């Protein structure tokens, strides 16, 4: 089978469907699993039966995959007939949350590049784009009530060059932010591709950009951070600071229609757990579901409906499940795509543990210790792209692909692994990435122009 992700079942029929014009399938709405579809191709017609609009959309993605790499190009490059093999594909996703987090705070990703990534996620049948919009190194969300958040917090005078322990700097300013209308555009663009954009404003840690703009939010001031790592400065616990962030989240919720809103809660040395709980309660009062990293389970009782992202392994997620919270699995050992892809010295800015393509494909989102009797549910999983060392779309492509394709198969397909995965990837999917213009890492190692000699990393 040549599709990524794998369908639940695939039956090859006799003959081929050929068309000199665009493929025009007959579409019917039927009962079935959410986002599921049945695609039938005969020599005379193409038929889609789907349970919802998302299912129709994913059937179209499968049609593009069956047509071959050129179907994924931005414009036709030949006048030949479109040919589909006669077949029946019955398909639906394993998980409802099939996500990718992109950190646009450490390095800003311009709007056109972000829209391109929405297309790439949709082509891989991923349906959640988690945007990490704020951190110590930059604030990327326009807040009309507090304009200094972007005027001051939206840029920094320099950045670390490689790993922070080398103490090298670029001596080059970096910045950027999205207007609210930019983000409304991104949200609508994604929705038309059945991708939900989940925004995150991180509190009470990772907040130095906000403190630089409004020093009264912190305890000892300071500018936008130019270093990487965990900043000991956090938000103070004053009621005025809580009111400030209620205003920020109110504007965020006016822009983003997602039922889930991220509020961070991670890596906050000495941070106030009550602050985290109050923000979560505010989100619930506004009819949204709070979404925090797994440290939030240590902050005390969280509101019903809170979703927990388990990144420090799976233990935080297991605690959250037992506490009745839904969980998104994203353990750093399996799905942190900024981590180095091999032990080769040619890997650019090698950080973290080795996380190969095979390692990502081996990931199982539901830990063996989950019995199914827990009051919480594993909603799915997401891959995370932190961008301290990914300062451009080209660097993002290198880190993400083809590992993100492997992840997409994991969260869509049944848990059994396909021994033919690498063969399918090499023969069929890498040419699709070529057609899409993705500058992925070759399986044999980086191209010479993808290496970064002399830029220090910190391999573990």
UniProtKB/TrEMBL annotation:
Q: Which reaction does it catalyse?
A: Hydrolysis of terminal non-reducing N-acetyl-D-hexosamine residues in N-acetyl-beta-D-hexosaminides
Q: Where is the active site?
A: 267
Query: EC number(s) on record?
Result: 3.2.1.52
Listed GO CC annotations: membrane
List, alphabetically, the Pfam families matched: Glyco_hydro_20, Glyco_hydro_20b
Q: Does the keyword Hydrolase apply?
A: yes
| Annotated GO MF terms | beta-N-acetylhexosaminidase activity
- This chain belongs to the protein called beta-N-acetylhexosaminidase
């Amino acid at each position: 089978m040549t599709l990524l992700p794998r369908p639940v079942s695939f039956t090859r029929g006799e003959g081929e469907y050929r068309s000199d014009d665009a493929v025009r399938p007959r579409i019917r709405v039927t009962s079935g699993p959410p986002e599921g579809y049945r695609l039938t191709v005969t020599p005379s017609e193409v038929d889609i039966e789907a349970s919802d609009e998302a299912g129709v959309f994913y059937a179209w993605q499968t049609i593009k995959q069956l047509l071959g790499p050129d179907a994924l190009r931005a414009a036709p490059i030949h006048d030949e007939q479109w040919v589909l093999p006669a077949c029946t594909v019955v398909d639906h996703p394993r998980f409802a949350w099939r996500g990718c987090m992109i950190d646009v705070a450490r390095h800003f990703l311009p709007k056109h590049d972000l829209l391109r990534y929405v297309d790439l996620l949709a082509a891989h049948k991923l349906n959640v784009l988690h945007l990490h919009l704020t951190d110590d190194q930059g604030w990327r969300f326009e807040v009309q009530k507090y304009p200094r958040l972007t005027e001051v917090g939206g840029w920094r005078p320099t950045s670390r060059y490689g790993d922070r322990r080398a103490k090298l700097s670029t001596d080059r300013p970096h910045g950027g932010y999205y207007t609210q209308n930019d983000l409304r555009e991104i949200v609508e663009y994604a929705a038309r591709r059945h991708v939900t954009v989940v925004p995150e404003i991180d509190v009470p840690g990772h907040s130095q950009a906000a403190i630089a703009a409004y020093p009264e939010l912190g305890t000892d001031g300071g500018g936008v951070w130019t270093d990487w790592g965990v900043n000991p400065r956090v938000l103070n616990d004053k009621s005025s600071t809580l009111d400030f962030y209620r205003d920020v989240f109110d504007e965020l919720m006016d822009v983003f229609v997602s039922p889930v809103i991220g509020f961070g809660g991670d890596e906050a040395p000495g941070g106030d757990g009550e602050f985290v709980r109050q923000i979560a309660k505010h989100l619930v009062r506004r009819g949204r579901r709070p979404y925090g990293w797994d440290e939030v389970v240590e902050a005390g009782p969280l509101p019903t409906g809170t979703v927990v992202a388990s990144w420090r392994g799976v233990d935080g997620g297991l605690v959250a499940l037992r506490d009745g919270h839904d969980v998104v699995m994203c353990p750093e050992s399996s799905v942190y795509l900024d981590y180095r892809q091999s032990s080769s010295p040619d890997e650019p800015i090698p950080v973290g543990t080795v996380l190969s393509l095979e390692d990502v494909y081996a990931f199982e989102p539901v830990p063996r210790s989950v019995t199914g009797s827990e009051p919480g549910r594993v909603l799915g999983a997401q891959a995370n792209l932190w961008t301290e060392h990914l300062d451009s779309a080209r660097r993002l492509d290198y880190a993400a692909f083809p590992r993100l394709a492997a992840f997409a198969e994991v969260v869509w397909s049944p848990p059994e692994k396909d021994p033919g995965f690498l063969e399918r990837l090499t023969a069929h999917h890498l040419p699709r990435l070529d057609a899409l213009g993705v500058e992925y890492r070759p399986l044999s190692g980086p191209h010479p122009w993808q290496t970064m000699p002399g830029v220090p990393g910190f391999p573990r």
